[in-house]
From TrEMBL:
Annotated keywords: S-adenosyl-L-methionine, Transferase, tRNA processing
Entry EC number(s): 2.5.1.25
PANTHER family: TRNA-URIDINE AMINOCARBOXYPROPYLTRANSFERASE 2 (PTHR21392)
Family affiliation: Belongs to the TDD superfamily. DTWD2 family.
Protein name stated in the entry: tRNA-uridine aminocarboxypropyltransferase
Superkingdom: Eukaryota
Recorded catalytic activity of this chain's protein: a uridine in tRNA + S-adenosyl-L-methionine = a 3-[(3S)-3-amino-3-carboxypropyl]uridine in tRNA + S-methyl-5'-thioadenosine + H(+)
Domain DTW: 42-236
Region entry Disordered, spans: 1-25
Chloroplast in keyword set: no
GO MF, one annotated term: tRNA-uridine aminocarboxypropyltransferase activity
InterPro entries: DTW (IPR005636), DTWD2/TAPT (IPR039262)
Length: 274
């Protein structure tokens, strides 16, 4: 009896402070709800380039889309679509809509993409993808008919390789590459080697060659230069290529365990073209 009574008393005594604390907490919450809260105001964005107005890129685009006869088909890996600092929208803003068409995906079958299949089968279509079988675009442009179409794959090097080799359509056009030793100006993103270029840079050089107009390259590169400048001013760091980091002992990430990836890094250090 005493034990039971004592148990009930202890239980009741323990409940008192808990209930009191709960009451204090509720009262505290009610007080918090009465405090003024500042609403988060979204930064005003430009309707054209979708960037905050303070770093709007529109002043760096051409006033009117560039007049070109060459048509670009950008084959974009889905992962690139979600990147904030991607370059394809900058390229598209410089060209007429019918001269820069973007297709997003990994696999492109003839049944699902009949227009692309027709383009790939056209004798005036080129695909910009480096390799042993690729001819230099500068040489091809001298004899190739105009107007032409150029297909460019947008993604990391591994993503581009996957798209190129797993879509038979992309081996129908003549394969070409750029013969250039210039370094990329897309310094806010790491490239595999010092001479790897962004999609926008490849397109700018290719169009300048096909149209025989160096001014096209300068015009298309202008928004990219502005983008990188804005990012660096707001805390971004210059990204050296993986090749540069490896050669100078600055690569601070764990070395890959995959033998194929490790071999690629060894080739980069030894100046072997990959």
């Amino acid at each position: 009896m005493e034990t039971a009574a004592t148990g009930r008393e202890e239980s009741g005594a323990a409940a008192g402070p808990v209930e009191a604390a709960a009451g204090q907490e509720d009262g505290g919450c009610e007080g918090l709800w009465e405090l003024p809260v500042e609403r988060c105001v979204r930064r005003a964005e430009c309707g054209r380039c979708s960037r905050p107005r303070k770093v709007c890129l529109c002043p760096f685009f051409p006033v009117h889309p560039l007049k070109v006869s060459t048509c670009l088909y950008i084959i974009q890996h889905p992962a690139e679509e979600s990147r904030v600092l991607r370059t394809v929208p900058l390229l598209a803003a410089c060209l007429p809509g019918d001269k820069c068409k973007v297709l997003i995906g990994r696999r492109f079958g003839e049944d699902r993409y009949p227009e692309l299949a027709a383009v790939c089968r056209n004798s005036s279509t080129l695909i910009l993808y480096p390799g042993a079988e690729a001819a230099n675009l500068e040489e091809v442009a001298l004899i190739f008919p105009s107007p032409s179409t150029i297909i460019i794959i947008d993604g990391t090097w591994s993503q581009a390789k996957d798209i190129f080799y797993k879509n038979s359509l992309f081996r129908l056009p003549k394969q070409v590459q750029l013969k250039t030793s210039i370094s990329s100006q897309y310094v806010i993103r790491t490239q595999p080697t010092n001479t790897c270029l962004s999609t926008l840079e490849c397109a700018a050089i290719a169009l300048a060659i096909m149209e025989k107009n160096d001014g096209i390259r300068e015009t298309i590169l202008r928004p990219l230069q502005a983008l990188c400048s804005f990012q660096l001013q707001h805390g971004a760091q210059i990204h050296h290529s993986k090749e540069h980091l490896l050669k100078n002992g600055l690569y601070d990430k764990p070395m890959p365990k995959n033998k194929r990836k490790l071999r690629r890094m060894e080739l980069l250090v030894n100046n072997v073209k990959i």
